[in-house]
Design a protein that fits this description.
- Helices cover 32% and strands 16% of the residues.
- It is of the alpha/beta class and 136 residues long.
- A two-stranded parallel sheet has the order 1-2.
- Helix 1 packs parallel to helix 3.
Length: 136
């Protein structure tokens, strides 16, 4: 979609749902389509953003931490800056049969940094509004 198409779709919506998949590929197309440029204004106007798996990870300040779970080669990104909608890292699938061990390694590696990371099981949701954060 073009940035005009994306803006028109977002103008007509109250909620946007971003599904999972390859985080790098998703972020590439979020940037190429112009979605990343118009989303913040819509969120400030009250739009609700729902993100699942990669759709949650792209809201972080950066996405390169997820490389053990996703293939960065699936996209052509100039940088790995996320949408920066939250000021922490979201690590999905910590209890998943396939991705759980990879998520554990990522969490272990991130403990060496000063970044905040929130790990989520597959049956959990993270709610963020301003500075309020709750895991359901």
């Amino acid at each position: 979609k073009s940035s005009i198409d994306v803006k028109e779709m977002l103008d007509a919506a109250d909620v946007v749902y971003m599904s999972g998949g390859n985080t790098y590929y998703l972020l590439e197309h979020v940037k190429k389509s112009g979605f990343s440029n118009v989303l913040k204004d819509h969120l400030d106007a009250g739009m609700l953003y729902l993100g699942s798996s990669a759709g949650a990870v792209i809201t972080c300040p950066r996405i390169d931490f997820i490389a053990d779970m996703d293939n960065p080669d699936r996209a052509s990104l100039d940088d790995f800056k996320g949408l920066n909608l939250v000021d922490f890292l979201i690590l999905p699938h910590i209890d998943h049969k396939k991705y759980g061990p990879k998520a554990s390694k990522i969490a272990h590696d991130l403990r060496k940094t000063d970044e905040t990371i929130i790990g989520l099981r597959d049956n959990q949701a993270l709610y963020v509004e301003d500075t309020f954060i709750k895991i359901y």
